[in-house]
Amino acid sequence: MRIAIAGGVTGGHLFPAIVVGQALQARGHAVLYLGTQHGLEARLTLPFPKELLPMEGLRSTRRTPWSVAFTLWHATRRARQVLEQFDADLLFTTGGYASMPIAAAHSRRKRPMILLEPDALPGKANRWLARRAQRICINFEEARPHFPNPLITRTGLPLRPEVYLPEVTPVEAQQHFQLHPDRFTVLVIGGSQGAQALNEAALNTVQHLPSGELQWLHITGADHYETVRATADRLGLNGNYRAVPFLQGRDLGLAYRAASVALARGGAGTITELARNALPMILVPYPHAAGGHQRYNCEAMATRGAGIVIEQHALTPQLLAQHLLELRDCPQKRQSMGEAGAAWAIPDATERIVNLIEEAVRCSPPQASD
Fold first, then answer.
1. Domain count, the chain
2. Which of 15, 33, 69, 256 could staple 277 via S-S, CB 3.0–4.6 A?
3. In terms of Cα–Cα distance, which of 293, 234, 222, 257 is closest to 43?
4. Alpha carbon 32 to chain centroid distance?
């Protein structure tokens, strides 16, 4: 089988696409990734061939409708050329606006498409894509009512295998980061690019806690690391605080194992990784996320008892310290929250999606491209 994959710009769309692509390759299928020239995919080496299309400025409010339409037309035309040359049997997309011209080109070839919706509230692009998909995979059950397509399956969200390391003990993971073993550990993670509001909240909260009460593993984001590190040095945060600019792969999995609780944004990827690792979550949705989708993700986890939601405008050092100390002093609550998240996460999401892809290709009658 020859499978085209679309979905990128940010890690939330790109990483699940990579995981599914690798699983397809492992089963002997040919994979081609289509993305944008300005997204995260342009800066990473992917484990399969990629074709990057010119789509810069599609969401810019400074461009005229005519120039946006021309960019879409040009990207769609190029995508169709690539898809025909590759002779894709199916398009798998993780959604987002950058997938739209690729899906438009693919739909003209009358080959099946499968859409993965990571969030609890689908965005406009994914609702548009859903009308062209033969099957929709969802991560949150809350997304189901927003799609007209009856062929909806809750598969969960594919995760990189290295972010789940149950064979590593928390003490071993803490030692990896030169943290105190067996001490209550707060992981601060703002997504692939970091989050300045979480960085400031963490640094301010450290000052409201007696020295040694908690220890912190702080993923700042590469753009914020030097500023955070300088502030931490000025405040004299030493043995109970460790800042790192960015973690990926096994190092991120070790960070999850080292943590007792996580302070995080509300991206679907981060939430699903935390849930898979049975970590209690204090979630601060990004207030400017498209359509407010992070708020819906966070509320879905709070409803299940897996997370505590704090709106960014209400995120004070006093409130954060209160929640952290309550969780530290109540292991039963931490366990209950972690178990609720783990029960929601679907461990074999990747296998489920790959099975659906293979089934869709097998059941699709062979058709020539136009």
1. 2
2. 256
3. 222
4. 21
**Counting every residue, how long is the chain?**
370
Residues 329 and 180 in one domain: yes
37 and 93 share one domain: yes
Residues 21 and 125 in one domain: yes
Whole domain around residue 8: which residue ranges?
A: 2-157+347-363
Q: Is 183 helix (H, G, I), strand (E, B) or coil?
A: coil
Tokens of 19: 């995981």
- My answer on whether 260 and 359 are in the same domain is no
pLDDT in tens, 256-303: 999 999 999 999 999 999 999 999 999 999 988 877 889 999 999 999
b or e along 293-309 (b: 16 or more beta carbons within 10 Å of the residue's beta carbon)?
A: bbbbbbbbbbeebbbbb
Same domain, 209 and 73: no
> CA nearest 75: which of 41, 101, 100?
101
Higher pLDDT, 99 or 207: 99
Q: Which amino acid is at 222?
A: A
Instruction: Report yes or no: 129 and 115 within 8 Å, Cβ to Cβ.
Output: yes
How far, in Å, CA of 235 to CA of 105, rounded? Answer: 55
Q: How far is CA 306 from the centre of its chain?
A: 17
In the structure encoding, which two tokens stand for residue 233, read together? 């040095």
- Residue 331 CA to residue 272 CA, distance in Å, equals 22
**Model-wide pTM > 0.90:** yes
**Residue 84 CB burial class (10 angstroms; 0-12, 13-18, ≥19):** middle
CATH code for the domain of 297: 3.40.50.2000
In tens, the pLDDT along 309-335 reads: 999 999 999 999 999 999 999 999 999
Provide the β-strand partners of residue 153. Answer: 137
Classify residue 189: in a domain, yes or no.
yes
Task: Yes or no: say if 187 and 257 are a contact pair by the CB < 8 Å rule.
Answer: no
Spatial distance between the Cα atoms of 81 and 74, rounded to a whole number of angstroms: 11
Strand ranges for the chain from DSSP E: 2-6, 30-36, 50-53, 90-93, 113-117, 135-138, 152-154, 185-189, 215-219, 241-244, 261-264, 281-283, 307-309
